[in-house]
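Section handout, structural biology tutorial.
Before the tutorial, make sure you can parse a SMILES string by hand: atoms, branches in parentheses, ring closures as digits. In the record below the ligand is flavin-adenine dinucleotide, and the chain has 256 residues. In the tutorial you will relate the predicted structure tokens back to the input. Do not try to memorize them.
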Amino acid sequence: MAETTEKRALLSFTQLDQYLRCPLKYRFIYVDRVDPEFVPASLIFGRGIHAAAAHYFRGIAAWARPTLGDVQGVFESYWDLETSPRAVRFWKGSKAELLDQAVKMLAVFHAAQDPATEVVGVEERFTVPLIDQATGEILDPELVVVLDLLERDREGLVVADLKTARKYTDRVERAPVARAADSTILERCFGPGWIAIGDAAVSYDPLASRGLVGALSSGLEASSLVAAPEGRLADWQAGLEASFATYRAERARLQA
Ligand SMILES: Cc1cc2nc3c(=O)[nH]c(=O)nc-3n(C[C@H](O)[C@H](O)[C@H](O)COP(=O)(O)OP(=O)(O)OC[C@H]3O[C@@H](n4cnc5c(N)ncnc54)[C@H](O)[C@@H]3O)c2cc1C
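Predicted structure of the complex:
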């Protein structure tokens, strides 16, 4: 699986994943190449940690183990460079707090590495053909894959995927959580140039099994309503309120 030398269209897993999750966002990012209003600090943070780890492993591969200061320095330079010229949105901590967190994370990372492990490849890039499962046709774009780290330990080759986000473990390990699912109706479901639809306008007890139909039907109505005169919108809101009152009465009857 050598890296391709021809100019072929390449797709990454991130691109495919993005397309499947939200084709419109895919279009904004990869087709229209719209400049985002801001870059999440978590993205820069993750890339900086990757760059620092890659620096460490490349050093190991070249038989010159980088010091902790070197590794932290790579992050710090990346962090300074990438957070300075553009709009960055910080959620969990300021620029300085996140830098401090990265420095601590990299200290744990550095101490945990076994310098005797053989590094076979760092950010190894290769391509695989994409095959239409239904027809067997080999599609034009190839899938480009980057392995964070390929190493050999006592048991053989190991592919390591470095993660800084907690999402995956959160999903697997967190205990079930309780969330409110109240029945609500918005006091005012429209205004100049906007209307609320779906759960944003009216939400029902999930047990009632009517939220999806309500969301879809109000979505269909929305296109003709959004620019409608205020009187028609007021009638529409009155209709929602009447239907909600019927729902509440029915729910009270069933729960009695
Ligand atoms: C546990 C549970 C079980 C349910 N079971 C049923 C059922 O069996 N049958 C049924 O009909 N209904 C059921 N419902 C209700 C149904 O899921 C909802 O009524 C329906 O999904 C509402 O659709 P919606 O498009 O209005 O909102 P949502 O499905 O909530 O979609 C809104 C989307 O907007 C996104 N969003 C929010 N803020 C922003 C922002 N600022 N920028 C960009 N995106 C944003 C959200 O992430 C979300 O993806 C259930 C609900 C729950 C909670």
